[in-house]
Amino acid sequence: MEPGALLPDALATLDSEQPPVRFIPTPSAPYFQQHRAARLLEQASAPGHVDEMSAEAPSLPHAFGARVLMWKQDPSVGEIGTRRAYLPGPVLAGPRDARIAPGSPGIDPVEPNAFGDFVTQPDTPQFDAVHTFAVVRQTLTMYQRALLGAGVDMPLPWQWNTSMDTRPLTVFPHGLPNVMNAFYSRTQACLKFGDFIPNGVTAGASAPESARVYTCRSFDIVAHETAHAVLDGLKPLWLQADAPPQTGGLHEAFGDLTAIFLALSQLDQCEAVIAQTKAHLHDQTFLSDIAEQFGMALGGTTGLRNADNDLTLGQAGTQVHAISQVFTGAIYDVLADMFAHERNPALDDCAAVLHRVAGYLRGLLLRALIGAPERAASYVDVVNEMLRIVAEDGKPDIYAAFIRNQFARRDVVEPPPHGSAAAIGGEQLLPKVCDAPGARQDRRACCGTMNLPEYRKVGLVLDREAQALAQWCAANGRLGECTLAPGPATPAPRPEQS
Ligand SMILES: [Zn+2]
């Protein structure tokens, strides 16, 4: 555009011999308004145009935080597609921050653009790096806010963090090529995500790469695995395979529920759920279908697990996957009950109510998990903690009734005698179905995290075998320079807490 094209004298010559190329129509007022709004969204604010908060915190740079483009659910849920999200903390090239780092070797670090934002093309490794980072970051932030909102100021450490070890969680979006899984590893301090070509797609060189499923592209799977890392930082003994089945169920359920709560921490997702279900949460939606693309790739018609289920504890046995669905389903039902109770379309928008109710419930669940025993926690422990906290928070008695009734319906707790105020006035509910003494977890249908050898004390088993061999050699005259056999062939995990 030539300088002066918008000047009045140029416009005044429209009827003369002015060449058409200089014709610039006068922008309308609505256009100016729209253009101004778009500029505010697209550009970092100019130095000096700081809001009150940043003015009070001059040490922070202006335009703090980063905008990212990410999947709302995963690439298969085309209807809701991608979203642009704002991450309020500092994000450096990678992306990385103080708590989350990109794995190396891996995807080349993604550089922020001139505005400090990470906006890349979907279906590329760079997009995968940004999306995965963003979901991990949002999950951690969601729970930090939940605690802070309840007056608990704690950073939610990773399991390995100490005063001397503040290593971040390392994220490998393409960390498991041709593996149909994803996991959180404590010993590697990382999350790794697999990619695979689903069964039924022609194998070999002609296999269409476009059919490849990347688990890191699933909002739900990334949130689920991050939840394992968050909970392991709080309750390191819960992830061990020799814990009771219900303890394992809590880990898996927390993963699935985190995916649901993270979706509902975003207003546009709440609006989508309300519109799709007409505010009836037991209607079939993307919300209760966890990990759509991953589930379909495995041959299912819905997601990997279905949160809106009717399983009872008596039906689940020792299968941690099934047991987890009992807990997930009960919490989902409590969410639906609380939402139906709070909903008042005459007074408030349903999406706003859902956002608020889910926000309270996720904090309630996290606080109840923190308050549960460090070892061998069962569902009834968490339920009783939830009941204690809703009373402490001054919530209406009906909140306690929702929790009590939904968990009683699933054989987790004994229903109190008719008319009893048990557990509302502080009395503890009793378990109905318990893990059998010495019951061992069946983790076969669980995610990759639950199947890692590091949580099965495999290193200790191998060490014991090696020591027995060394003792036999010593007893039979096969003496060497060192009577201790070398360690196991597999990398030994860090000493496990017990
Ligand atoms: Zn899991």
Please give a structural write-up.
The strands form three sheets. Strands 3, 4, 5, 6 and 7 form a five-stranded mixed beta sheet that branches. A two-stranded antiparallel sheet has the order 1-2. It has helices at 8-11, 29-42, 52-56, 125-149, 219-234, 245-264, 267-277, 292-297, 313-316, 320-342, 350-371, 379-392, 397-409, 458-475, and strands at residues 66-71, 82-87, 100-102, 169-177, 182-185, 190-196, 213-214, 289-290, 305-306. It is globular, with a radius of gyration of 27 Å. It has a domain at 69-356. It starts with 7 loop residues before the first helix and ends in a 23-residue tail after the last helix. It has 14 helices and nine strands. The protein is 39% helix and 8% strand. Strand 5 (182-185) and strand 6 (190-196) form a beta hairpin. Helix 11 (350-371) packs across helix 12 (379-392) and helix 12 packs antiparallel against helix 13 (397-409). With 498 residues, it is of the alpha/beta class. It binds zinc ion.
Structural features:
two-stranded antiparallel ribbon; globular; 9 strands; 8% strand; 14 helices; five-stranded mixed beta sheet; alpha/beta
